[in-house]
Amino acid sequence: GRVAFNHQQSTLDCMVRNLSGDGALLLLSEVVALPAAFDLEVPHHQRSYAARVRWRAGGRVGVAFEAQPI
Length: 70
Prior knowledge:
This protein has no helices and 7 strands. It has 70 residues and is mainly beta. Strands 2-1-5-6-7-4-3 form a 7-stranded antiparallel beta sheet, with no helix packed on it.
C-alpha cells in the first residue's frame, strides 16, 4: 500500500495487513513521522481510504478508516 499526505505531495510505501471495513494494520519499513490523518491507497484492492492513526508500536501502525473508500 501507500500512505499519502501533505495534499498527496508526500508518500510512504507500507505493507497492509488485517484489512477490514473499519481499519487496517500497516507495517512501515522504518519508524517515520506519520501524520495523524492521511489517505491510504491499496492498489491490490483498487481503493483509497481516509485513515486516522489509532495506535503505534515501532514500525506497526493501527489505523481506523474515516469513511467508505474514496
